[in-house]
Design a protein that fits this description.
There is one protein chain. Helix content is 45%, strand content 16%. It is of the alpha+beta class.
Length: 62
């Protein structure tokens, strides 16, 4: 996994460091932004609904 300072990560996802820091503090980072962060870091982002029978409906950056 690649690591970056928050300011560089912000730039790589197309935001200013100031705006991105505000979003982190307010906890208003969007799903699309999380996917973009995962892409920049070279990791997989997954979010899923787990149904009562154990089946999963996943959203990912892949």
């Amino acid at each position: 996994m690649i690591t970056y300072p928050v300011s560089e990560l912000a730039r790589r996802i197309g935001q200013t460091p100031q705006n991105f820091n505000k979003k982190l503090k307010r906890e208003t980072v969007t799903l699309d932004e999380l996917k973009a962060i995962a892409d920049v870091l070279g990791v997989r982002f997954e979010q899923a609904f787990v149904l009562p029978d154990g089946d999963e409906i996943k959203i990912s950056n892949e």
